[in-house]
Amino acid sequence: MSPRTSQQYEQIRAKSKKKIFQAAVELFSSQGYHVVSVSQIADKAGVAKGLIYNYFESKDAILQEIIHQVSSEMIGFMSAMEDEKEPKKRLETLIRSTFKLLKEKKDFYSLIMPLLSQPSFSKEVKQSLASFIKVIVQDMEVSLSNLNVQYPRIEALTIGAMIDGIAWHYLLIYKEKYPLDEMELKVIAYIRQLP
Amino acid sequence: MSPRTSQQYEQIRAKSKKKIFQAAVELFSSQGYHVVSVSQIADKAGVAKGLIYNYFESKDAILQEIIHQVSSEMIGFMSAMEDEKEPKKRLETLIRSTFKLLKEKKDFYSLIMPLLSQPSFSKEVKQSLASFIKVIVQDMEVSLSNLNVQYPRIEALTIGAMIDGIAWHYLLIYKEKYPLDEMELKVIAYIRQLP
Amino acid sequence: MSPRTSQQYEQIRAKSKKKIFQAAVELFSSQGYHVVSVSQIADKAGVAKGLIYNYFESKDAILQEIIHQVSSEMIGFMSAMEDEKEPKKRLETLIRSTFKLLKEKKDFYSLIMPLLSQPSFSKEVKQSLASFIKVIVQDMEVSLSNLNVQYPRIEALTIGAMIDGIAWHYLLIYKEKYPLDEMELKVIAYIRQLP
Amino acid sequence: MSPRTSQQYEQIRAKSKKKIFQAAVELFSSQGYHVVSVSQIADKAGVAKGLIYNYFESKDAILQEIIHQVSSEMIGFMSAMEDEKEPKKRLETLIRSTFKLLKEKKDFYSLIMPLLSQPSFSKEVKQSLASFIKVIVQDMEVSLSNLNVQYPRIEALTIGAMIDGIAWHYLLIYKEKYPLDEMELKVIAYIRQLP
DNA sequence: GATGAATGAGTCTTCATTCAT
DNA sequence: CATGAATGAAGACTCATTCAT
Question: What CATH code is assigned to B59-192?
Answer without folding.
Answer: 1.10.357.10
